[in-house]
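Format notes (please read before filing issues)

Several people have asked whether sequences and structure tokens are stored in separate files. They are not. Every record keeps both together, in the order shown below: the sequence lines, then the token lines. Line labels are part of the format and must not be stripped during preprocessing.
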Amino acid sequence: MDAVYHYFLHPGKKPGEVIFKPRNLKVELVITARNWDKIQEHLANQEPMGRSSLGPGGNPGLFLDPPAEIVESDTWSPPPLSQILHNVGKPPSSHQLASVLPSVMESAGLPSRTSILSDQVPIPMPSVDVSSLYHADIESAPDRQAHRVSHKRPLSMPTSPECTPRPKKSNSPEWQSPDRAVLRSVLQQQVANVKLPSSEVQHAIEFFPILLKAFNEMLSSCPSPDFSVHAYHGHLYTDPQTELAPPGSFKTAHPGRLSLDAPQTLVPPALGMIPYESIAVKRAYYKETIRGKDRVKHFSGAYEVDIMGREGKALYWAMSLMDMVYCFVKRHVGKAAVSQEGFAVPEVRFVNAGLAIIWNTEGKATKALLLEQLIDASQGLFRKFVHNGSAKPLPDCGSQDYNLACFLCFAQHVQWMKTGGLAFVSDFQGGDTLLSDPQIMTHPALAAIFSQGNVAAAFRSFPDQHECNHFCAHFGLLAPEPFEEDAGVDMH
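Then the structure lines:
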């Protein structure tokens, strides 16, 4: 109690003078587990009193009624706080506080003094402003009716989110010693259950987001279309020992998390706007035969920067080429005289992505990673709709994915037509609405552009292999123009 008194009482300027200074006080009441169980049992047995569920100051709390023997006794009469404070805000003296607090505790059936025991339960109490300790009238929020607190029910113990009431004792059987044979078996299994720390590693990176640009806007970029314009610094957390899927034709995929230093400056939608966003980390690889077995090896340095830069550029172009298709569809729908009801156009897009570069202390790039939005289970199974070696849909006619595959073949038709037979997107794969890992097919006269999936033979055969479907017919497309070997392309 002396600590509480000195918290409010301070020496004055005059000798022997003591000044009371009102301050907020956080009180922690410590009681034994046995007393706490008594309180819980007492609350469960008492009948509803029909009064407000709000404690002093409007704080939600529990009203703890004193035991019946105290209520019925004529000798128990704790002095009301109003007599001590006289007026709201007038400070009480230390001996006045000492005369009230023990009686208040005894009214709840608690000992007036507490001790440090092994089974004590701390009850954190909210901060209390001593200038408003006493509230004779308590207004209930639901019915706005005032209720005066009887002196026989003086204690309110407000609850707080930090205080979880001690559960009542269960009727579970008495604890027994464990079976030695079972314990030994479990202990032996712990050797096999020990797991090594996570293989996740952290890298400081320079991140170049791949953002969607309208096709004509992308073409007007000077000196050449490129996504690596704005760089962002951040950290990449990846687990190179874990694979999201078996290695593809050119890349491996690993789980990771991306955290950028200034995500709020990104232009939405963009990868990295969510702190510690779960992503797919992709790296180019090659196979090396060691002792008769093929091993997956990753490139490094400038060569990996070149390879993954091409992959990022292919995704950048695929986004714009698909945006061009949807612009074509919207213009056609706006001009069409016939009703569009009953004809649904699938809505798909490529994942948000970006290129991450890891530098060494000498300022040289050591790794280049393609970071992509994660295609999770909500997108269904990862599957391929159109192969880069053919212009025909992969799913069988009548299957669930056949309609989407037909739309993607229609998208190729539009891109062939709008680019004059120079480029289109292929190798469509992904989930229900998210696509990834595209290939940009270009005229063979343009030499090696984009990634290794740019198959010249597949480009030449596109006009003959493409079969117009219901999307092509609905939007009035004619058969693709035949392939021209030169196509007005400068060979030099």
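For reference, the curators noted about this record: Residues 301-335 form the longest helix (35 residues). The first strand starts at residue 9 and ends at 11.
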